[in-house]
Amino acid sequence: MLKQWESLSEGSTLNLDEFISNLVFNADGLIPAIAQQHDSKEVLMMAWMNEKSLRETLATQQVCYWSRSRQTYWRKGESSGHRQLLKSMRADCDGDALLLLVDQEGPACHTNRRDCFYYDVNEQGVTVVSSEDAGLA
Amino acid sequence: MLKQWESLSEGSTLNLDEFISNLVFNADGLIPAIAQQHDSKEVLMMAWMNEKSLRETLATQQVCYWSRSRQTYWRKGESSGHRQLLKSMRADCDGDALLLLVDQEGPACHTNRRDCFYYDVNEQGVTVVSSEDAGLA
Fold it and tell me: Which ranges carry the Phosphoribosyl-AMP cyclohydrolase domain (chains A, B) (predicted)?
């Protein structure tokens, strides 16, 4: 937990290893990571990282997640070419979520949509707000 | 899982109850919810919802999370006054994350910062990027 650091003022610095050891990984060793396009500020997707993928992402500046469905490292774009270049990584106040500011090459979503959040949900029903090839337009 | 709907084109509609029954709630019955300021597109925070808080949020247009630490409903702003008015709710391609477009009253973070993502993480170390009263400026 990061409680001890929450009153630090802007510009204060902390040791990376100590900080990471205070992040909250779940029972599977994972932390959620939100990817946001750094300039347009679109939220592109949410996926998961373990400590090793987090450190690889910082080292390579190419976003690497942990795939829960495939149970392996998921270097975004390795097969699709739709890579995410890390511009900066943020952690939240209680250390249980990451925000990745990225430069997304092509669509972020496996459906070829630009982002994954294409279902609009409201009390009247759910509406699909972009089509499968929207990211290729 | 929402796989069966991913090739639907823009404007297609789905039944809300059927859609919710296909969302992926974790073993604790929770789904992550990202709150984004609807106009500036800042990512404010990430928290969790269960089905009941999701439905309450849609019904009231005031964001209600499930607090994992307090194990109770967390009607954002109920004590602080820093409420989140829901502008729209989105779900992602595989139905395991929500994006809430909100109008945030005051700071979103319990530290009074505008947003919770105030630790910048990189290989050289971690830097605090806003001070505790930044949201009140």
Answer: 45-118
Q: Round to whole Å and give the CA distance between B41 and B83.
A: 17
Whether A59 has its CB under 8 Å from any CB of chain B: the answer is yes
CATH of the domain at A76: 3.10.20.810
How is residue A114 written in tokens?
Answer: 């630009």
CB contact under 8 A, A89 and B120: yes
Q: Is residue B81 part of a domain?
A: yes
Helices H / strands E in chain B, number of each: 2, 9
Q: Does B64 carry a binding-site annotation?
A: no
Q: Is residue B61 part of a domain?
A: yes
Q: How confident is the model at residue A22 (pLDDT cuts 50, 70, 90)?
A: very high
- Is B36 inside a domain boundary? yes
CB contact under 8 A, B16 and A123: yes
Q: Are residues A119 and A93 in the same domain?
A: no
Report the alpha-carbon distance of residue B117 to residue B21 in Å, rounded.
31
Q: Which domain holds residue B91?
A: 12-108
Residue among A8, A99, A130 whose CB faces B117 most closely: A99
Specify whether A67 is located in the same domain as A125.
no
Q: What is the ipTM of this complex?
A: 0.95
At A59, the pLDDT band (50, 70, 90 cuts) reads very high
Q: What is the mean pLDDT of chain B?
A: 95
User: How many distinct structural domains can be found in chain A?
Assistant: 2
Are the C-beta atoms of A73 and A53 separated by less than 8 Å? yes
Nearest to B123 among A46, A58, A122 (CB): A58
From A105's Cα to the closest Cα of chain B, the distance in A is 19
How many CB pairs below 8 A link A and B?
A: 184
CA of B4 to nearest chain A CA: how many angstroms apart? 12
Dmax (CA) for chain A in angstroms is 49
The pLDDT of A25-48, averaged and rounded, is: 98
